[in-house]
Specification:
Layout (H helix, E strand, L loop, with lengths): L16 H5 L2 H18 L4 H4 L7 H14 L5 H6 L4 H5 L6 H16 L5 H18 L4
Helix pairs in contact: 2-4, 2-7, 7-8
């Protein structure tokens, strides 16, 4: 356990601790905006960028709302779009391990731009590997 996250502080993943550490809905929206900006800028991410619509407004909204609930905040995705099954939502796409890794690379770069505590950035990247893997549809 890091010094920034000791026994007197709630642990990331408990209740809404992660949601709060991410800056709430506004902080998550900034992360998502930076994530898609990184995706637009990195040629390694061209293939995953092409899996998204040209206009990213809805993609940005869906990811931000998903992350709010996923991080222990309000379940805004469910309220607006209904329940989500990550594998089912991505089943129409051919997402392989390289795509998963490029998605995580974009998220890692976006996390570097956030004012989050360093241990929270590391925590996020480890945790985000789980839904990233669930998006993979081919070997």
């Amino acid at each position: 356990m890091s010094t920034a996250q000791n026994k007197t502080q709630p642990r990331y993943g408990d209740g809404d601790t992660s949601f709060q550490a991410a800056g709430g809905q506004a902080g998550i929206r900034k992360l998502v905006d930076d994530f898609y900006d990184v995706m637009d800028q990195h040629t390694d991410a061209d293939r995953i960028r092409k899996m998204h619509p040209r206009d990213l407004e809805e993609s940005r909204d869906k990811l931000a709302l998903f992350l709010c609930g996923w991080l222990g905040g309000p379940r805004l995705f469910r309220e607006k779009y209904g329940p989500i099954s990550i594998p089912q939502a991505h089943s129409h796409l051919r997402i392989d391990s390289a795509d998963r890794d490029n998605w995580l690379m974009c998220m890692e770069e976006a996390l570097k731009l956030q004012p989050y505590a360093e241990d929270f950035k590391q925590y996020m990247l480890i945790q985000l590997a789980v839904p990233a893997e669930r998006c993979r549809t081919v070997d």
